[in-house]
Amino acid sequence: MAENKTNHQMSTEVSHGNGTHEKIFPPLDPSTFAPQLVWLAITFVTLYIIMSRVALPRISTVLEERRDRIASDLDEAEKLKQQTEEAIAAYEEALTQARNKAIGIAQETRDALAGEVEAEKLEVEKQISEKTVEAEKRIQDAKTAALAHVNEVAGDVAESIVQELIGGKLTKAEVNQAVSKALAS
Amino acid sequence: MASDQAHSPDGAMPDPIHQFEIKRILELDLFGIDASFTNSSLWMVVSVVLISLLTIWGMGGRALVPNRLQSIAEISYEFIANMVRDIVGVSGMKFFPFVFTIFMFILFMNMLGMLPGAFTATSSISVTAALALLVFFTVIIVGFAKNGLGFLKLFVPAGIPKVLLLLVVPIEIISFLSRPVSHSVRLFANMLAGHITLKVFGGFVTMLIGTGGALAAVSIFPLTMALALTALEVLVAFLQAYVFAMLTCMYLHDALHPGH
After folding, report:
1. Is B13 contained in some domain?
2. Residues of A in contact with B38 (CB under 8 A)
3. Is B183 in contact with B244 (CB distance < 8 Å)?
4. Which residues contact B67 (CB under 8 A, 6 or more apart)?
5. At what angle do helices B125-147 and B220-256 cross, to 10 degrees?
């Protein structure tokens, strides 16, 4: 009842505004309700059946397939990444081993060389010291010989000088004794 | 907006109400009920066909990387699926086809109504009221079927003093019963008012041009207004479909979880 009254009021306003003969405001006109509702029911039910039976399951399938595909691709990528990391780790390890080995070899070589050099050095030093000792001995001998000679020469000279000075004859032993005494002082 | 404008006898201003008239294209009688195929029915059928084309033919490729049409169908699907999941909950996903149908149907009827000459099926109170009542009764039936008499807890908010319940329960019942009214009138009034406003401004343009002279130049102002309003109406057409679907979800949530 209330609705009819509003219809009537609105329709009067409309008719005033347009100056046409009085008619019901169309969106509220009850005489058109039946055909609209019948077709609303038909179309809505049709659409609902099409959507729920055909369209939505299809879209859902496509979306799920894509989700699965993306998930499996991500898994695959993860797996590949892990493999890459393993390869990198293996490479790093090999590199470290190689480096250690190289260091070892270098150290060995260095030690070996150092040993040889040391041995050589010792040998040379030994030779040198031997030669030095020999040389020193020779010098000492020469010195001793020379000194011995000096005594002799000094003796001879002294004998000659004494002979010339005093015209006497001195025994060799006396002269040598005197020379030795003089040299020693 | 009807292209075949009916002019009032003085001929100055096109009738803004004319566009809402139901025209019988084909007179039909179904068991004594007037089931005539009207301009309203035509655009309902067009909506159904276009939605079906979008969601079935548009998804035809089932491509891993979707094309534009498939993207639209998928985005619509996920938009409504997320709405139902967020508001009704995962248990409410069985209502997803229902909410999707309501949303797409109203959206297409609203949007097609923006085409010049097309009829806006949702600008009639009978259509929006029928949809609102469908939701209303679905909520009541599902509510009682799922919760039995526990559904009545909807009207008795928890944690409220007994005395206040005397006041709160009638308010809750009234607000529940008024749901279909606000649900239907919101959509109906928005579509109706928008189309009347558009037609009035469009009418100004034709009227001013018709008078000729300097006034014809002034017609640029209502034209600009009509242009801006058209953009607004496209937004409203989407928004009202969204709001209708959103409220449907909220009411369905009440049906499944009546405790506040």
Report:
1. no
2. 32, 35-36, 39
3. yes
4. B61
5. 20
Interface of B with A in 24-83 (CB under 8 A): 24, 28, 30, 33-38, 40-41, 44-45, 47-48, 51-52, 55-56, 59, 62, 64, 70, 73-74, 77-78
Question: Is A20 close to B9, i.e. CB distance below 8 A?
Answer: yes
- Is the confidence at residue B20, as pLDDT, over 80? no
Res A61: pLDDT: 87
Exposure string for B133-163, b = 16+ CB within 10 A, e = fewer: ebbbebbeebbeeebeeebeebbeeeeeeee
Tell me the sheet residues that pair with B36: none
CB-nearest partner of A37 from B45, B52, B126: B126
**Domain ranges within chain A, ordered by starting residue:** 2-184
Phi, psi at B7, each rounded to 5°: -100, 140
Strand-pairing partners, residue B33, are B30
Contacts of B145 (CB under 8 A, 6+ apart): none
**Average confidence score pLDDT of chain B:** 84
Q: Is B9 among the domain residues? A: no
Q: Provide the chain B residues 141-160 that lie in CB contact (below 8 A) with chain A.
A: none
Q: Is residue B202 part of a domain?
A: yes
Q: Report chain A's mean pLDDT, rounded to a whole number.
A: 82
Contacts of B10 in chain A (CB under 8 A): 19
For residue A71 the two structure tokens come to 């998930």
Bridge partners, residue B7, by sequence: B14
Q: Tokens 């496209």 — which residue?
A: B234
B71-74 long-range contacts (CB < 8 A, ≥24 apart) are B73/A55, B73/A59, B74/A59, B74/A62, B74/A63
Domain, as residue range, for B70: 18-256
As given in the structure block, the two tokens for residue B24 are 């019988």
Residue B178 exposure: Cα atoms within 13 Å on the Cβ side = 8
Query: How many structural domains comprise chain B?
Result: 1
Q: What residues of chain A lie within 8 A of the CB of B35, using their CB?
A: 34-35, 38-39
Q: Which residues of A53-78 are buried (b: 16+ CB within 10 A; e: fewer)?
A: eebbebbeebeeebeeeeeeeeeeee
> Is residue A149's pLDDT more than 90?
no
Identify whether B11 is part of a domain: no
What's the pLDDT score for residue B12? 56
CA separation for the pair B224, B100 (Å, rounded): 35
Nearest-CB residue to A55 (from B52, B121, B130): B52
